[in-house]
């Protein structure tokens, strides 16, 4: 057991190190219209200050929002998604108290096909020189496969890998990118369109051992059973475990009952400690996969193939963080119960030595309750993010087809909790439909944890820019044109320039001392041909413009240029422009092929 645990810790450490390198600055994305954050800190109106100044910054993306957002999927009796409802058709309750729905939208899950502008070259084309190659087709669908090889038995894992291999071969398209992650951390493959690499990675996945109990433990307790003893002080569970200890340790019931009870307590504490580590690492892995997937510019789906795992009350904040990040980042988590048609063996398998009839009945009861809770966490992840939970079926190939297709549309509901205390407490959520709506069912997240501090205006503005950078949606609240230029200094080195031409006359300026004041934040980001985030440049333009400058000299707008050192290849470009005073946003896509 110790060897298995050490293997997993090393594997997860490697996973997190790689995740840290991949996520460097990229943490979430969303396809919603920008929220209205308060304006930035007022600019000084010094008459001697320059009319325009540009400052460079390295963008960092780590924020939270106090707005509680839910993704709700509504279906009719035939299971077809219903997208015809209005905000008034929903009722939302926080700890049983009705809430005002302040954010409402109907979103489509289908990927977007974006027509990228043709890039400009850095110089004039010589006579007879071939035309620049057209930009590559932009991927619009990203699927991250997470195989729970820490909890899957060998025979179940083999069936899951076979079904996943078949599904990949049938589902990959020119605009689809897939990645493979495992809960052990090995092997992993980042997003790619290389089907051969994907299938090879699947073939290298091996079961890494189950941490929740070992055949050598005496008594052998599940995480659920151990938690009843160690954390809930359940005397019935303790007595049943003591009976098990008497048998597995060949102890005399007449003289060694006290020792058996002590053995049961000690084993329960060890199992709970291991179980807490197991769950924490699993949820952390899922959180990192959500972060990784959220950095992809398109439709984002995570498919978790797992037998389920136990999440206790003290671990719910970690689960809630996964849900919050997925919803905020427009990532759908769908789950496939890899146990298939689950059949419980009463009392356990033949390797487990049973105690008395009473303890055998208790063991069976705890097995059933634990197995149910382990599976339900898969339902919670799917319901909370608008995904699909497939369980109680041996048709794993068909299950992959079902979970790989997100609902055609879903509703996004947001509310600001009234009199919210920033204490980190848990809030039960309930979403219902009004009485005038009938024959429909819905799925939504079941709760959230209150934040421990309030988000300020600067954090909210940063979050808006971050979400838009990793989205594929275009916004045109501010008139902006995107252009690209490149210059090759050698066969292996090139300079890529991204230009944002902004019509500043359409901005809302604040007047002070004869100047027109505003701040523009311009973020340019580049992604590789698979949509993997490479780098971003943030520029801040402080404007203290005189009236004649704004009316005349800037009639053609301003150009903000960002440069990237790259190698020849295919790149996708994204620019986001936000102004502080009017809180308007522009976001555009581009693509460039550097031969």
Query: What distance lies between the first and last C-alpha atoms, to the nearest angstrom?
Result: 53 Å
Q: Which structural class fits the helix and strand makeup?
A: alpha+beta
Q: Average pLDDT across residues?
A: 81
Indicate the CATH architecture of the largest domain. Answer: 3-Layer(aba) Sandwich
Topology:
Layout: H1 2-22, E1 52-57, E2 68-75, E3 90-94, E4 97-99, E5 103-108, E6 141-147, H2 154-171, E7 176-182, E8 189-192, H3 195-203, H4 223-230, H5 235-248, H6 257-294, E9 299-306, H7 316-328, E10 331-337, H8 357-385, E11 389-390, H9 396-404, E12 409-415, E13 426-433, E14 441-443, E15 447-449, H10 457-469, E16 475-476, E17 480-488, E18 494-502, E19 510-512, E20 515-528, E21 533-546, H11 547-553, E22 558-566, E23 569-579, E24 585-594
Parallel strand pairs: 6-7, 6-9, 9-10, 10-11
Antiparallel strand pairs: 1-21, 2-12, 2-14, 3-4, 3-13, 5-12, 7-8, 13-15, 16-24, 17-18, 18-22, 19-20, 20-21, 20-23, 23-24
Can you walk through the features of this model?
With 595 residues, this protein is an alpha+beta fold. Helices cover 30% and strands 28% of the residues. It has three domains: 2-14 and 139-216 and 270-404, von Willebrand factor, type A domain (Rossmann fold, 3-Layer(aba) Sandwich); 31-64 and 456-594, Immunoglobulin-like; 68-109 and 412-449, no CATH class. It has eleven helices and 24 strands. A hairpin with a 2-residue loop joins strand 3 (90-94) and strand 4 (97-99). Helix 2 runs antiparallel to helix 3 (195-203) and helix 4 packs across helix 6 (257-294). The two termini are 53 Å apart. Mean pLDDT is 81; it is low at 1-43, 60-65 and 111-118.
